[in-house]
Automatic annotation (TrEMBL):
Transmembrane intervals: 6-23
Record's protein name: Cytochrome b5 heme-binding domain-containing protein
Domain named Cytochrome b5 heme-binding: residues: 43-145
Span of the signal peptide: none
Family statement: Belongs to the cytochrome b5 family. MAPR subfamily.
Keyword field contains ATP-binding: no
Organism placement in taxonomy: Eukaryota, Fungi, Dikarya, Ascomycota, Pezizomycotina
Length: 155
């Protein structure tokens, strides 16, 4: 009886193919690309305004001088969302007063920032809770300064 029978040759061929499939070079694994790095920067009200989510721009908003990247919540803060008027703006007064109306926004972008001095304790607590929520959920990407501020030259 010979070892080179047809069944043995088929089994040997099958074994060689299996070994080849296990040992062949594999394509290198490529990791998915992450978001581009965000550099902390200084914003003025006019340089913050373009970050409103339109034309696939990121969505930023400011709370008490800190600028948050709320792009992951674009459904809420971007175009068509319930808080869209805060996109690219200082949202501090509106959040403190729990009002999303246009009159809560500073109209004069070249003027001083809203100092919020006229807010009562309840409004300040509202603002604090919003600020904490943003801090837990979103990245701080910069700070907001007035147009005439010396740091505004870096904006």
């Amino acid at each position: 009886m010979s070892i080179a029978t047809p069944i043995n040759l088929i089994l040997l061929s099958f074994f060689v193919v299996l070994v080849y499939l296990q040992l062949r070079p594999k394509a290198p694994v490529s990791l998915p690309k992450g978001p581009p790095p965000v550099v902390f920067r200084t914003f003025t009200p006019t340089t913050l305004l373009p970050f409103n989510g339109e034309n696939d721009a990121p969505v930023y908003l400011a709370v008490r001088g800190r600028v948050f990247d709320v792009t992951p919540g674009k459904n809420f803060y971007g175009p068509g969302g319930p808080y869209e008027n805060f996109a690219g703006r200082d949202a501090s007064r509106g959040l403190a007063c729990q009002s999303f109306d246009e009159e809560m926004l500073t109209k004069d972008l070249k003027g001083p920032l809203d100092d919020l001095k006229d807010l009562d304790n309840e409004q300040l607590e509202n603002l604090q809770s919003w600020e904490e929520r943003f801090s837990e959920k979103y990245l701080v990407v910069g700070k907001l300064v007035a147009e005439g501020d010396p740091e505004a030259k870096n904006a």
